[in-house]
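Posting this for the archive.
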Amino acid sequence: MEETSIKRDIRKLKLDELKAFFVEHGEKPFRAQQAYEWLWIKSAKSFDQMTNLSLETREMMKKHFVINHIKVDKMQRSADGTIKNAVTLHDGLVVESVLIPTEKRITACVSSQVGCSLACKFCATAKLKRQRNLSPDEIYDQVVAIKEQAELFYGRPLTNIVFMGMGEPLLNYANVTEAISKITNQKGLGMATKRITVSTVGVAKMIMKMADDGVKFNLAVSLHAAINKTRSSIMPINDSNSLEELGEALAYWYQKTKSKVTYEYVVWKGINDSLEHAEALLKFCKIIPSKVNLIEYNPIDDGEFQQASDEALNMYMDLLERNGITTRIRKSRGKDIDAACGQLANKG
């Protein structure tokens, strides 16, 4: 056990560092390239899988390194085909990820943190304390696991990735963007960047940083109210990132990227189901080109939040569409296994 504790996780090394290690241990530099391909293109879970490396080389790697791969400990399948994974990390902590199948696509919903620090009142994950950020390889591994499930259970490829699982992606920005780089790189999974959406509650300064960095993935904002008083009452982050600050950050985002934003918006009974709230959302939507997903609410058992009436949803839909805002009502998937939006970690 003592020897294992001082071994490095091989996936923390960049390719140049891996080459330097192999040369230092009497190997040809191209062996590092072979090992790197096993790690990031073929998603090897152990050194024994690296069959084009000699047994001696593999044993040498085992002596110095570990691969801290995630483990899907529990898999639940919903009546609608959604699959929820309980994912155990190398240190025993657990996060959840979800495979969401539709007719035209298969989407991986992945976590970026263990727990969350933002305390949104309608979200089960927010009831957990944030324990740590996920590393790039732990995020990458969730995608690989769902990619394999898509092929095994549906005979179809993974098409889309959304960072809408546990945690706030922009509070783990460096690791999330490095994971996306591995997922999209031809020396990784080779997925298209435009198939990836990062969802945030609206960390204004990080939205501006993304714009400065010229990211190519899509941006979604978990909005849920466009009146400060209401938004602050359900999303405490609004106290430090007001709608005015968020609007300015989004204007900067669009100026730099020319990429429209998607607003994720749940309508709750007695909270934001009035015409006043719908008109406020319409006004906010006009800051930059945008579209709106009106999301069916998924209860988290405490009864404080209840799904608004169909009339309220239709009122929102009519107002937004009449004013040129692309809007759709998004039915939630996987509710029977607590895999829907806001429900992750609901049952422990």
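The chain has eleven helices and 14 strands. The longest strand covers residues 94-101.
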